[in-house]
Structures are given as C-alpha cells and as structure tokens.
Amino acid sequence: MNLGIRSPLRLSEMVTVMHKCILAIVAHPDDEVLGCGGTLARLADEGWPLVAAVLSAGATSRLPGREEERRQQAALKDALGQAACILGVKEVRQFDFPDNAFDSVPLLEIVRVVETLVQECCPSVVFTHHSGDLNVDHCVTARAVLTATRPQGRNPVRTVLSFEVPSSTEWSFGGVLPAFTPNVFFDVTATLERKLAAMEAYAQEGRPFPHPRSLEALRMLSGVRGSACGLQAAEAFMLVRHVVGAGVCLGNLLP
User: Fold this and answer.
1) How far is CA 42 from the centre of its chain?
2) Is 55 a domain residue?
3) Is residue 102 part of a domain?
4) Does residue 6 sit within a domain?
C-alpha cells in the first residue's frame, strides 16, 4: 500500500499493533473532510479505528447575533455527525475554542486539550493542519499538536502528517511559512465520492465553482495530487515526523 512517491511507506509499517487508533485533529467542522476525508474513509474501510477531534464549533466569527450563532453551530454539529457517518469515523469529539480567534487563547490551554486526547485515544498516527496556512486557527492547531505529540516518554504518536485545506493553505501564497510541499500521497480513488458526499453534508460551508471548496474544485485537486504520483486521485500530506521503531524492516521504508 504505497502512501508516497518519495518514501513509499506501508501504513502498517508506520504504526504498531499496540496502539489503538488514528486521530485527526482539526480546527473547524469540515476541515476533517477537506484535509483528509478520502484518506479517513479509506482507513475506515481497512479497519482502522478513527477519532476526529474538532477544536471549535465554527461559524462564530461570521455571524451577527447570538441566536444566529447558535443556529449555525447546531447545523454544523449535525453536519459533523453526518460527515463522520459517511466517512466511517466512529468517534467525534468537539470543543469550544473561539472560531478564528485561537490566537486569543493561551497556547497552553489548547496544548492541554490535545495532550488529553493523545492520552485517552493513544494514537499512533495523527493528521492535522499545515503550520503555514493562512487561517490563524489552523496555524495554532498545528503548533499545539506538535507540542502535545513531542516524541518523549510514553507518548504513543509515531507519525504526524499535515494536510492542506483548500481556501486556506494555498491562499497564503508563501506569505506564511513554511510553504506546503507534500511528500506523502494517499490513493483515494476508491473513496473520493464519499469525501465529496461528506462535504455535501456541510451545505453552508460549500461554495460554487471556482471557489476552492466547491465540489468541482475538490475533485480537480484530487486529480492534480494524483497525477503527481501516478494515481487517479490522491490526498497530499507533508510528513512532519515519523519514528521508526525497533523491529521495523528498514528495507520496507526504501523506494
């Protein structure tokens, strides 16, 4: 099962059976679909236990009044559950950090939430945001995840992968460093339609083409990422860290 064109790893070689799950940590509802929805659906089909952690309720920064805020947040929560069912994510945890204002919260507060998630879920692989995104919540989430998953002591996380979120990652235009330069690619040819169906659950978050979050643009992006590595459709990631434990055959990690 090739995941990358530079380092074609097997997922079974990136994790060990003693660890319990794969954890996706995102800032907002719909980020889990945009960033790694096809991959999550594929991993669910392969039998991996999946947990999605969403650090905010979303929508707050865009709404004029409290009543509308509550209505939109309820709709997003419902959409989050629908999308999880479509992708095969069995457990979703949601928190209430302020939308588009993570930088107003002491980083340590977010780190502690992520540390608790890691302790309780015991993941081997964590998917999260790219630290060079335009959206401030994405950047803070990426920083908190890196801090909470430091490779020390009994921390179970062996692999951290960052994903791109259309309309945030590419819209930094290199002005927020580092730039997103993917080196791991998951084949999502068989699960792309489920990713798009999950995105349709977030009706209020979708946009008409040519917006990057339109279904047409998402399909096009998967084709571009796939063509970069000889696949029909792929999701792209940057490998932030991968620890090769004892007992892993190094020959399996080489092209």
Assistant:
1) 14
2) yes
3) yes
4) no
Q: If you ran DSSP here, which 8-state letter would residue 175 be given?
A: S
The string over 213-227, giving b where at least 16 C-beta atoms fall within 10 Å of a residue's C-beta and e elsewhere, is: bbbebbeebbbebbe
Q: Look at residue 185 and tell me if it is in a domain.
A: yes
- How many structural domains does the chain have? 1
Q: What are phi and psi of 177, to 5 degrees?
A: -95, 150
Determine the Cα–Cα distance for residues 86 and 180; give it in Å rounded to an integer.
Answer: 28
| Cα–Cα dist 165/27, whole Å | 11
Return the pLDDT at 127: 98
* Structure tokens belonging to residue 24: 């996706």
pTM as predicted? 0.89
Helix (H) and strand (E) counts in the chain: 7, 7
Contacts of 41 (CB under 8 A, 6+ apart): 86, 87, 88, 188, 191, 194, 195, 198
Q: To which residue do tokens 């692999």 refer?
A: 159
Question: What confidence tens digit (pLDDT) does each residue in 86-101 have?
Answer: 999 999 999 999 999 9
Q: Which stretches in the chain have pLDDT values below 70?
A: 1-19, 59-65, 247-255
Residue 156 sits at φ, ψ, to 5 deg, of: -80, -10
Beta carbons within 8 Å of 254's beta carbon, 6+ residues apart: none
Domain that holds residue 123: 11-253
pLDDT of residue 35: 98
